[in-house]
Specification:
two-stranded antiparallel sheet; Double Stranded RNA Binding Domain; three-stranded antiparallel sheet
């Protein structure tokens, strides 16, 4: 099977067409002098979560709740990369971050089952506490009347 370059495989159940992603190149900020001021190497990635036909209603609700702090009022997710010197490298970087962010937001968290410590673990903890208490008691000053 030949991998399709038009699709981003986020999870085994979700593949997003690259056509849904909108890229915008801007000049980077910060130090760098003439190169950073004149070169549009910083890349912004925009993806509309609310209108994406690739998502099922359950996936959409999950993304909107888990990524609420990253999604604007119009339902768009925005990621930025400007750490690399070339636009291509920044584009690849922001696509990788996009796959990680969306994939981790869709990951099913395992149910935590509360456990109790074993009897041996409880005994070890209590023995350690007794030893520590005895050690501290021996460090105290001794009254002469007790002798």
């Amino acid at each position: 099977m030949v991998p399709d370059d038009r699709l981003l495989h986020v999870t085994p159940a979700l593949a997003i067409p690259r056509a849904e992603l909108v890229f915008r190149a801007t000049t980077g900020g910060g130090p760098g002098g003439q190169h950073v001021n004149r070169s549009a190497t910083r890349v912004e990635l925009w993806w509309n979560v609310e209108d994406s036909p690739s998502l099922s209603p359950e996936q959409r609700d999950l993304l909107l709740s888990r990524l609420a702090h990253r999604i604007d009022k119009r339902g768009r997710l925005r990621l930025v990369s400007g750490t690399r010197r070339s636009q291509t490298m920044n584009r690849d970087d922001v696509i990788g971050r996009f796959v990680n962010v969306v994939g981790s937001a869709l990951a099913v968290k395992p149910i935590r089952r509360p456990t109790r410590p074993s009897r041996a673990a409880v005994e070890r903890r209590l023995e350690t506490k007794r030893r520590q208490s005895e050690q501290k008691r021996r460090r105290q000053r001794v009254d002469r009347e007790d002798e």
